[in-house]
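Cross-posting from the modeling subforum.

Setting up a comparison between two proteins and wanted a second pair of eyes on the formatting. Protein 1 (sequence, then C-alpha cells):
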Amino acid sequence: MTHISSDRTKWTIHGERAVDENRHIRLSVASVELPTGVRFDQYVLRLPRCVMTAVLDEAGENILLIYRHRFIIDRWDWEVPGGYVDPGEDPAAAAVREAEEETGWRPRSVEFLYSFQPMIGSADARQDLYLAYGADLVGEPHADAPPVPPNVISLADRRKKRDEHAG
C-alpha cells in the first residue's frame, strides 16, 4: 500500500461562520479549498458526543431495544438506548444513565467497543458504542421516554428473519 502525504490530500479551511447554534447542535458554513485549488462552501454540523449501549442478556442471545417514532424520517424504528454525554460526565456513566432513563433497565456494567462518525462528510458527531451483558430492572423509563415499552428481541430470531428475507 502506498502512503500519501497528508499535505497532498488535506483540505484547507479558510473560515467558518455559525448559522445557528444551541446546546445540541451547531450549524455552520465553512469556506474550504481542496488540494487541487477548488474552493467551495460546505455546511458543517457539530453535535455533542453521544453514547449508545447494546444491552444483551447474560448469554448474549437477546438485545434490549426501543421502538419509537422519529418525526424527521416520519417512521417508527428500533433503536438501542443512547443519548448525549453531559458536560464533564464520564461517557461510560452516560451510557448506563441513558439506558436506564430510556428503558428502566440498568446495565450491570458496560464495555467500550468503539467510536465512529456516522456522517463524517458533513458532520462532527462522535458516537461511542458500549456493550453490556445483563441488566437489572430498576424502574420505569424516564417521563420523556418513548410511549412504547422497551422490548427484548431475540438475536437468533432476527438472524433467521434476515436470512429468510435475503433468500
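Protein 2 (same layout):
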Amino acid sequence: MKNKNIDLVIFDCDGVLVGGESLSTELMANEARKYGWNITNAQADKIFSGGELKKIGELIAEKSGSKIPDDWAVMMERKIAEMMRTQAVTVDGAEDMLQDIIALDLPIRVGSNSSACEMDAKFSKTGLDQIIQKDRIHSARDLNIPKPNPDIYLHAAQEEGVPPEACIVLEDSDAGVEAAVRAGMTCVLLRDAEKPDPKFGDVIRIDHLSQFAGVVQSIASNL
C-alpha cells in the first residue's frame, strides 16, 4: 500500500550489493584460531557478519585470552580490501535491481560498516562503481560510528538533503536493521525465508533482490 513519500534509497553493501562476506568472516576466523580461539568458519560467519572490526578484535582477545595488536583492525581492513580486489562478486540480481531503482527516478546511496578502502575494492572488482558514484558511498567505519548506531544512515540522508522518514533502507544484518529503524527510516530486509526475523524493529522481508523495486513502488506515494 502506498503510504509515504520515498526520496532516497540507501543500500548496505555486504550481503546486499556485494557477496563474499563469508570470505571476510573466514579470514577473521583464521585470525581468531591463530590467537587461540577455536571457532569454526560457520560460527565466525554467524558471529562476525555485519560487525565492526574493532569490536571483533576485542571479542577475539576476550575469547582467546590473548593480546592482539592495537592496529589489528587496520591490518584486517587492508587484508580484506586486498582479498576483495580479486574475489568480490555481486549479489545475484544486484545490477538489475539498481537499474530498476534508478528507472524509478530515485537517488541511491550506500551506507556500510565496511571502510571506504574496502568498498572501493569491492565496487571496482564487481563493476558497481559504474552505477554508484564514489561520493554517494558512505563508510560508518570511517565515520567511527558503526551500526547498529543510526549515524551512517542519518549522514546519507543529510548528504542528500532529505528527511529520514523519506528514506528506505535495504539491509541484510540485524545490526543494520537496528541502525535503519533507529534512524526513523523504512527498512527492507533481504534474508532467506527460513531464517529468523531480526531482533530489533519491524521490517518488510524479501528473499531476492528482484522483489525490491516492487516493494519500493508499493510503499511510495510519490511514484
